[in-house]
Write a structure and sequence with these properties.
Helix content: 40-55%
Strand order of the largest sheet: 2-1-3-4-5
Distance between the termini: 53 Å
Structural class: alpha/beta
Order of helices and strands: HEEHHEHEEH
Number of helices: 5
Number of strands: 5
């Protein structure tokens, strides 16, 4: 049973990594998110959309939670699992708690802005009205490498807007 559960989480995280790769190719920080319901059916998938959407709140997790709420026609996502390639930031961790997601599965820790285990622990803090189960480190090496490679490539090549002094 444990191996079966691991394989299920691994399969969803592999799909999440693929979504993150698409975001990276589009110029976004490569973070992907997937929401599955209690019957293990995909109900939402999203990638970072901050650059393309000119929206500071368009993190992959926020986009996936919004989509899942629309699909379920309910903001309460109890029974659902959220998969994300990078540990959520404070904004996303707060939204995850407010959505009542039952399980968060994420890949790489975020030592700068992680708000689930690394820098802060919002889900277990007194500020959270919902206790969230967390499985961290799922395909961590792949998730971390994806992000590190993307940022290294960005540092090597000039950004299109850099000629304009922005």
């Amino acid at each position: 049973m444990l191996d079966e559960t691991y394989q299920r989480h691994k399969a969803w995280m592999e799909q999440t990594i693929a979504i993150a790769a698409e975001a990276g190719a589009a110029g976004e920080v490569p973070v992907g998110a997937i929401v599955v319901d209690a019957q293990d059916r995909l109900i939402a998938k999203a990638a970072n959309f901050r650059e393309r959407g000119h929206d500071p709140t368009a993190h992959a997790e926020i986009m996936a939670l919004r989509q899942a709420g629309q699909v379920r026609r309910n903001w309460n996502l109890t029974g659902c699992t959220l998969y994300v390639t990078l540990e959520p930031c404070p904004m996303c961790a707060g939204a995850i708690a407010l959505s009542r997601i039952s399980l968060l599965v994420y890949g790489a820790d975020d030592p700068k802005a992680g708000a689930v285990r690394s820098v802060l622990n919002l889900p277990d803090s007194a500020a959270s009205n919902h206790r969230l189960a967390v499985l961290n480190g799922m395909l961590e090496a792949q998730c971390r490498e994806q992000l590190q490679t993307w940022f290294a490539e960005r540092r090597r090549s000039p950004r299109p807007d850099s000629a304009h002094g922005s």
